[in-house]
Amino acid sequence: MKTPVRVKTLTIDGQEVGAREDQTILEVARENGIEIPTLCWLAGLSPVGACRLCLVEVRGVARLLPACVTRVEEGMEVTAHSERLAAYRRSILELLFAERNHVCSVCVSNGHCDLQAIAMKLDMTHVHFPYQYPRLPVDASHERFVIDHNRCILCTRCVRVCDEIEGAHTWDVIARGVECRVITDLNQPWGSSESCTGCGKCVQVCPTGALSEKGRSVAEMSKRRQFLPYLTLMREGRR
Amino acid sequence: MTLEELRKIAAAEQQTQQKYGHRVHVCIAAGCLSSHSDLVKEALRKEVLESGMQSDVLVKGVGCMGLCSAGPLVAVEPEGTLFAGVKAEDAAEIVAGLDSGAPAATSCPTDVPFFERQQKIVLENSGKIDPERIEDYIAADGYAALVHALAEMSPAEVIQQVLRSGLRGRGGAGYPTGLKWTTVAKAGEERKFVICNADEGDPGAFMDRAVLESDPHRVLEGMALAAYAVGAQQGYIYVRAEYPLAVKHLKTAIRQAEHMGLLGNSICSTRFSFHVDIRLGAGAFVCGEETALLASIEGRRGSPRPRPPYPAEDGLWGCPTLINNVETFANVPPIVRKGGEWFAGIGTEKSKGTKVFALAGRVANTGLIEVPMGITLREIIFQIGGGIPEGKRFKAVQTGGPSGGCIPEQYLDSPVDYESLAKIGSIMGSGGMIVMDETSCMVDVARYFMEFCKSESCGKCVPCRTGTAQLHDLLAKITEGTATPAELALVEELCDLVKHTSLCGLGQTAPNPVLSTLRYFREEYEAHIAKKECRAGVCQMHASGEVMP
Ligand SMILES: Cc1cc2nc3c(=O)[nH]c(=O)nc-3n(C[C@H](O)[C@H](O)[C@H](O)COP(=O)(O)O)c2cc1C
Ligand code: SF4
Ligand code: FES
């Protein structure tokens, strides 16, 4: 027997919208043309609520809530855009730019980078936090791909696509705090990873130039993500 | 096991103990053990044997007596005398004085506020019973609540008592325990879990360790009562691997309780079964956060996830899960035994019962104390703690560890309860209490806690991962005397950002030590920046080229 899907109505930035009860604020906002910035979220991967760019205000809730994981509720009054949120979002982006090396002019993904695109969209004109610039390694041991940790923003999209879609779980995160790094297998060089299937999905979902194909020069690495919604759709169909 | 049988065991044990004219208690919990109380215990045993008093004198190892700074501690019952700083060589003198009651060089007065101002519920057996003998716990009314509840009370009635008691979670946030139990009880699933959070990661805190080392059965009984109330079949104790003695005592306790039919299948011949297993944490502070703890038990990386859904609804392996702190569970058996109303009669209107604190820093008596809620900070520090040593002046008291704040002198008369502490910019926290005098630099204290949060941040969410690192660098610059007023403004901006945008409690509370010291000791920050001066003489100022005395 099919259980009926309940429908909820709520407002986002004053606009009345309808939603299925299992939808998130982000999904409903996008359906209705309300843009909420996201970085760690990617359609087809499980949401983790880590980048905090999608934080919204909900009336009656003291905390800010991540739109990508928060379910809609009846009568919810969501504010997705306010001066306070815009300032927080810009600061979070600036913190990312200050954390590692994100000099666009020498990046393979210049012009095709999610981080760069959001920074422009949110009018981030400069970084007012001190740059940290740790010297991190580049692993080019894989036959076809490269990881440059200096460009990684630890969104864990690669970790999730590899685990959830490819089923290999080659990627994971090591260490804590600013010491965190994505690793392959048990911190082996990517080229010697026994679990990596070489499918390249991680490269395609990476928002920045951290993961790229070998042989690409500055601004040449654009990413192809069409496979993700397709694969998820096919899987849902099978369920 | 019936109540009858339990009483029989208790009576037999009491009788055996009463046979002895003197019962010599030697603390073998981690604090005293670190100053070799095990050797003291052996020396006392040997001395008793050699003087042929073994039929009249019992020497037994017990848990923490509280005055840890004066360890190793030895107490003699029923006289109630206490000896502090005991070494193996002192054994002869103590044993020789048992009958005459003559004081020894190591005698320690017990009619002092440190002992008299305390009120013990959680620690009532601590320092009295042998933590490795279930009979000793049973003789002190142990497991009576569980056996009674299984025979006479419905799960809902157990929850009623906990609700009525007004008990709130002792793990830090103070969430009403009865309410949490109700939520888990109402969750429809068949499989449910009860988890005891014994990850205790606040620097300098050892309340939970002491409870587990000194009275492990109390926690097991509390968990079993909880499992009965919410309908769980399996329990886990998530305890730090750095607490080997606690783990050892817990393992012994679980085995003994299972052997007596007080844990395991068909407890007390009823249909209620409850198994408890131990899971060791690898020393990550963030794994004390409940969703990270769940991930860790499931064998995944210990990083928090957004809530809701709360564990009560979607917890271990997706099942409804009750997570409570060690001290929370330890309060449950007496609540069920004596009734919720009894417990609600202690403490203040909104904060009931007692709270265990690890008193540390610049006070005369450091150690473990248990006080009724509502007692003032002044009473704790100046009466129980014995004031500030060496004629120094009190400056601030830090509660709540890296998530808490520094409270200045003007609030010393504030009552210790959840709301009052929050109002003055700190939190109750799990029970760390560090007293500071004029030799402490508040900026340095803030920097220290930020360093802790920076290295303990799980690294998942951006504001906590990078924000705490930025904050730490800026605070370090201030303590070095190289910061500008603009950088102080940046500190304040980052505090606001990290507090309001971080994913879990670690990041959300990490700015608290900075915010509270800025609130009460702003001039110290400004002196560091403008005059390159650290009045406490802690910070070494690089810029001015001179080192403060
Ligand atoms: C970073 C962090 C660390 C925590 N560490 C502990 C801990 O060591 N022990 C504990 O009982 N609770 C800890 N907590 C609180 C738990 O998440 C949870 O609220 C608590 O175990 C609930 O039990 P209670 O209701 O009995 O307090 C921590 C929370 C955070 C955010
Ligand atoms: S607030 Fe800190 S500890 Fe919590 S999820 Fe974010 S990075 Fe991890
Ligand atoms: S998109 Fe929601 S937190 Fe990253």
Task: Provide a compact summary of the structure.
The complex is a heterodimer of chains A (239) and B (549). Chain A is an alpha+beta fold and 239 residues long.
Strand content of chain A: 15-25%
- CATH homologous superfamily (4th level) name of the largest domain in chain B: NADH-ubiquinone oxidoreductase 51kDa subunit
Low-pLDDT parts of chain B are: 545-549
Largest sheet of chain B: 5 strands, mixed
Greatest interface and its participating residue counts: A-B, 34 and 32 residues
The CATH topology of the largest domain in chain B comes to: Rossmann fold
Helical segment tally of chain B? 22
- Please list the strands of the largest sheet of chain B in the order they lie side by side: 2-1-3-4-5
Whole-number radius of gyration of chain A? Answer: 19 Å
Give the H and E element order of chain A. EEHEEEHHEEHEEHEH
Structural class of chain A: alpha+beta
> Based on the structure, what is the oligomeric state of the protein chains?
heterodimer
CATH architecture of the largest domain in chain A: 2-Layer Sandwich
Question: Could you explain the architecture of this structure?
Answer:
The complex is a heterodimer of chains A (239) and B (549). The longest helix of chain A is centred in the middle third of the chain and has 17 residues. In chain A, the strands form 3 sheets. Chain A has a 5-stranded mixed sheet, with helices on one face. Chain A folds into 2 domains: 75 residues, Ubiquitin-like (UB roll) (Roll), CATH 3.10.20.740; 152 residues, Alpha-Beta Plaits. Chain A contains 6 helices and 10 strands, in the order E-E-H-E-E-E-H-H-E-E-H-E-E-H-E-H. Chain A is an alpha+beta fold and 239 residues long. Chain B folds into 4 domains: 96 residues, Glutaredoxin (3-Layer(aba) Sandwich), CATH 3.40.30; 204 residues, Rossmann fold; 84 residues, Roll (Ubiquitin-like (UB roll)), CATH 3.10.20.600; 83 residues, NADH-ubiquinone oxidoreductase 51kDa subunit, iron-sulphur binding domain (de novo design (two linked rop proteins), Up-down Bundle), CATH 1.20.1440. In chain B, helix 7 packs across helix 14. The longest helix of chain B has 20 residues. Chain B is globular. The chains are: A alpha+beta (239), B alpha/beta (549). The interface between A and B is medium-sized, with 34 and 32 residues.
